[in-house]
Amino acid sequence: MARKSSLPVNATLVIAASLLAAGCKEEPAAGPGEVAGRPVLVQRVAFEDRVPARSFVGTIRPRIESDLGFRVQGKVEKRLVNVGDAVTAGQPLATLDVVDLRLQTEQAEAELSAATASLAQADADLKRTLTLAGQGWSAASTVDRQKAVAEEARGRLLRAERALLLARNAVSYAVLAADADGVVTAALVEPGQVVAPGQAAIRLARTAEKEAVIAIPESLVAQAREGEASVGLWSQPGVRYRATLRELAPAADAMTRTYLARFSLPQADASVQLGMTATVTLTGAKTERVVRVPLSALFNQGGGASVWTVDGEGALTLKPVTVAAYEAQDALVSGGLAEGERIVRLGVQKLDAAQRVRVVDALQF
């Protein structure tokens, strides 16, 4: 005996009608401006320099910063400047007690007087000896001995003159003066301190030439040498100064593994103060225009790299491209594309030129 269905006849008719209605239902039409088809993620082609500009933070430093010291030993009497003072060439910075130096000068003057008198006596004795020798009353050996005495006295006089000159110079060295226009960056002595010759007393930074100092990684050493540089100050947004590489360290720092680079600023004015924070921007001297695309956008079937481009109606076109370089996640394309074109970023191996696609811009994510 056949088993009867447990569903009522009315319920069966309702289910059948629902299935028939679902089968006859039409797909929703694409809205205005939309293209029906497979959705694809795209990006617009935007060319950029293959060697982009790189910026480094540095500081403004003087090209020449030297420690000035007294050339003679003595006790500091006065310090005439403080840290941060602007000074001009020849301006006194500090002085020594000159009592001992003046005594040495007086001693040198006395020795000069004695040497002068000794030479005069020796010359007079030589003249008398020569007169007696001409009359036959003096031996030749006596004449020679008297000539030697006169020459010795003349040498003693010359030595006394040089000693007096040195003593007078020592008195002038008691005043430490600036050797150029600059700014005092350190005062290393105080009044009452006894200093040795050459000991650092005042540190002076010359303001005639300024430079920006930065640390460069080894991968950009060549760009620093061959490229162009400009410097901007944090205190003056929008103002740029032309810079020239003056010095590049021959060896990397042992701790940071970077190279110290100094860029001179020939156009720096008074607004560029020492110690300011600066941004040094390096650009390649010769740059190639490339577009950066993800590796997933490349399609290669053995004939070279290509990319899928999408037009405004959702049509696909496979274009061969020239790849300048490959990076970890991107490829640098130098030819085959035009500015503003849209290329497919993902799923390129599943596309076909006969397909119509719906564009999803990468900027939406």
TrEMBL record:
It comes from the Bacteria. Keywords: Coiled coil, Signal. Residues 213-285 form the CusB-like beta-barrel domain. It holds the Pfam family Beta-barrel_RND_2. The keyword NADP does not apply. Belongs to the membrane fusion protein (MFP) (TC 8.A.1) family. This is Multidrug resistance protein MdtA. It comes from Methylobacterium isbiliense. The lineage of its organism: Bacteria, Pseudomonadati, Pseudomonadota, Alphaproteobacteria, Hyphomicrobiales.
